[in-house]
Amino acid sequence: xxxxxxxxxxxxxxxxxxxxxxxxxxxxxxxxxxxxxxxxxxxxxxxxxxxxxxxxxxxxxxxxxxxxxxxxxxxxxxx
Length: 79
Description:
About 15% of the residues lie in helices and about 20% in strands. The chain is built from one helix and four strands, in the order βββαβ. It has one helix at about 45-55; strands at about 10, 15-20, 35, 65. The radius of gyration is 14 Å and the shape is globular.
């Protein structure tokens, strides 16, 4: 499975999936993922609008940003 060359928002146009993928992490599926933008320079809302601009017919309001399972914040439990 392909891995992200850099941390960024990526879009898979066939399934209309938008994901935030960390550098070196595998893409969520084997589809063709297009780089949308750097999350440091682009908000999630701007990423949705960028996708709608580059792929006419995609509804930015319907896009949900997928996160890697390991990307979610964790809490430590100390005894």
